[in-house]
Amino acid sequence: MANVSVYNMEGKEVGSIELNDAVFGVEVNDHLVHMAVVLQLANKRQGTQSAKTRAEVSGGGRKPWRQKGTGHARQGSTRSPQWKGGGIVFAPKPRDYSFKMNKKEKQIALKSALTSRVEEKKIFVLDELKLSEVKTKNFVKVLDNLKVNKALVVTGEKDENVILSARNIPTVLTAFPGTINVFDILKYDTLVLTKDAVAKIEEVYA
């Protein structure tokens, strides 16, 4: 089991914690991690882009000039793709980009992402994260104490003071054990977990 230091909000080491290898010590499956990221990005796409083909643009019902004898190249319609105002070749149409992964594949991908953060030593465990008031400055001070800038902060339970204090920081995202995903874990440089968040993640995914 990986042994990780536990810090307090002042950035001082106050102990250590053993992470469950079933969640934080698996063999990293790069293919499933990549697939999970593509899945999440694809599922976010609206797929509403649309353009008209030559069959759908208005006009162009008659041949612009006779076939031979004008010196021009032969043309059948003023709405062919090479004409201004003509249709689009292989015009994009509304479509659904989403696809699915098996539940086991999703879990392996998530565990792989968590394991990669442990292996890269980009994980911090806090004994607790409690703020007495909604104050962005106080939250930034906690991150500065940990020497962390771009971070995904996972708390064990919903804390409005923490959520609202972090909301205005563009390089920080708050989450809960049930809402973490592969894309966010990899997007942010550091993963900051509270001890109770670690316990809940291990309880859900072990």
UniProtKB/TrEMBL annotation:
Belongs to the universal ribosomal protein uL4 family. The gene is rplD. One of its GO terms (molecular function) is structural constituent of ribosome. Pfam families: Ribosomal_L4. It comes from the Bacteria. InterPro entries: Ribosomal_uL4, Ribosomal_uL4-like, Ribosomal_uL4_dom_sf. Residues 48-85 are annotated as: Disordered. Keywords: Ribonucleoprotein, Ribosomal protein, RNA-binding, rRNA-binding. GO terms for biological process: translation. Part of the 50S ribosomal subunit. Forms part of the polypeptide exit tunnel. One of the primary rRNA binding proteins, this protein initially binds near the 5'-end of the 23S rRNA. It is important during the early stages of 50S assembly. It makes multiple contacts with different domains of the 23S rRNA in the assembled 50S subunit and ribosome. GO terms for cellular component: ribonucleoprotein complex; ribosome. This is Large ribosomal subunit protein uL4.
